Amino acid sequence: MMNVWSGNVEPKPAPVAPWHGDLVDATEAGADGALALADRALALRSGAAPRSCKGRRLAAVFLNPSLRTRTSLVAACDALGVHASVLNPGSDMWRMELRDGVVMDGDAAEHVRDAVGVLSQMHDAVAVRAFASLNDRVADLSDASLTAFRAAADVPVVNLESALYHPLQGLADLATWRRHLGPSLQRRRLTLTWAPHPRALPAAVANQVLLSAAQQGMEVTVAHPEGFDLEPAILGRAQRFAGVSGGAVRVTHDLADAYDGAEVVVAKSWSGVAGYQDRAAEAQRRAAADAWRVTQAHMDRTANAGFMHCLPVRRNVVVDDAVIDGARSWVQETAGLRLWTAMAFLERLFTR
Ligand code: CP
Predict the structure, then answer these.
(1) Of 2, 113, 177, 184, whose CB has the highest number of CB atoms within 10 Å?
(2) What is the pLDDT of residue 299?
(3) How many domains does the chain fold into?
(4) pTM higher than 0.85, yes or no?
(5) How far is the centre of ligand 1, averaged over its atoms, from the C-alpha of 68 (Å)?
(6) 156 and 174 both lie in a single domain
């Protein structure tokens, strides 16, 4: 067991316009604010009447694929009377250039400043999915694509998963913890475990789980093989949250230690900081780490933990069928909560 970080690198987002209601990260509403949104989502799921947002318009731009985020957002808009324009650059919308000052003689026909400037005039908010590049650590640490949207928009920008964070997934995770662990999450034991995957993946979901759990005072174990460290800046933020909330954050590279006594197990693959330096070496490390697949034998070490994964998931690579289909799997419930948390968030955005 180790406590590791050297919070020496802070994300440095580029300067953006004054705050106008953006959603970047699920923790920014504060611990109580996030809980209030999660509880509102659970109330909506139980039949509470939604507040009408009729006449509002949302543009959702997907630079990367999505099933849950896209459909939950559209269904939530439908339920609230919000018009949703869903746009896919490169297919039903011009391919976009996100960098400033480049000669646009390649595939991108439109600059983000121009596109988002137009979308801002026709919508009350702009949402965007823009994953990490995984080849430029500085750009990913500054959440460069999301930052470009925020700088170009005159209306609130909603993060639908960026290089660093996945706030609407984070709210659904929080609602799931709330429902299964009761009114207080203080000192409840959550393990965020790395899992094998055939491809290098970003860490936005893992970062969000870590930060949200630490903010709520949970005892968080981040478990991964050597060489898959999360960004020290994110671990440092989580540590600071834990310092305020009374929670705890630790890192382990020991599989047995990872699972022992956990009440919640969240699995996710991520490529880690070292992946930026040598992608081939990272692929080799991933290929050699099948022992980290979530199996029933691992889950049997826990305190009857619930199993969570944000989906999509590679069955029998990340997690065995027996676990994800088992009685302690909360995976489908969390995915279903994406609708209700999106509604709770959009209500707040459009009726505040
Ligand atoms: N969990 C999640 O964000 O799913 P999608 O990538 O399908 O939106």
Answers:
(1) 177
(2) 98
(3) 2
(4) yes
(5) 5
(6) no
